[in-house]
Design goal:
By secondary structure, this protein is an all-alpha fold. It is 89% helix and 0% strand.
């Protein structure tokens, strides 16, 4: 690795360490950032599905479920973008419960899609549908079980992960720079 790459990695590592510390120090702000980011993503997925559903070659039930899912995604997305900016923390718990309901619906849609695909072709691998249903169900369970602490826990885990990854990269880069300096 050349000197410029090592310096770039060193700077990136320091930024990651600083970001991890910042996230852990300001969890409430980053909870709102996560909610707003998830809302923008939900809006994008909802509109994409809604505008492209006519080109899909699925049975009527699947198209209907996809339309319902996209409309729910748009509603959740709007709520997730607007609520953290305008309303107090109570709304975040309500949004999390609403998202949990949507996740349950998405798990059902994934199972229904798997059944439909199996009917079309027995050779289709259904593992992606199974994983989607499982992840949706687990996330819904977490959000239902304790909506007040679910997002702060995600922020804490993300902050610790970013901090740890940055610290590991920083240590490896420093050792690499010292080792190459000794070799010169």
């Amino acid at each position: 690795m050349d000197k410029k790459s090592k310096i770039g990695l060193l700077v990136l590592s320091l930024i990651m360490v600083a970001a991890g510390i910042l996230i852990l120090g300001h969890k409430d702000v980053f909870v709102k950032v996560i909610v707003i980011t998830a809302g923008v993503y939900s809006l994008a997925v909802g509109f994409y599905t809604l505008f492209n559903i006519s080109s899909w070659h699925f049975v009527r039930v699947t198209k209907t479920m996809a339309i319902v899912k996209s409309i729910l995604s748009i509603v959740v997305g709007l709520a997730a973008v607007i609520a953290p900016i305008t309303i107090a923390e109570i709304s975040l718990s309500a949004i999390q419960i609403f998202v949990a309901v949507i996740l349950c619906f998405e798990a059902v849609v994934a199972v229904q899609n798997a059944i439909m695909c199996r009917r079309i072709d027995k050779r289709i691998n259904l593992s992606s549908f199974a994983w989607e249903a499982l992840v949706d169900a687990v996330l819904a369970f977490i959000l239902f079980s304790n909506p007040d602490k679910a997002l702060p826990a995600v922020v804490t885990v993300a902050g610790i992960a970013i901090l740890a990854l940055g610290a590991i990269c920083l240590i490896i880069t420093i050792f690499s720079m010292v080792k190459s300096k000794k070799a010169e």
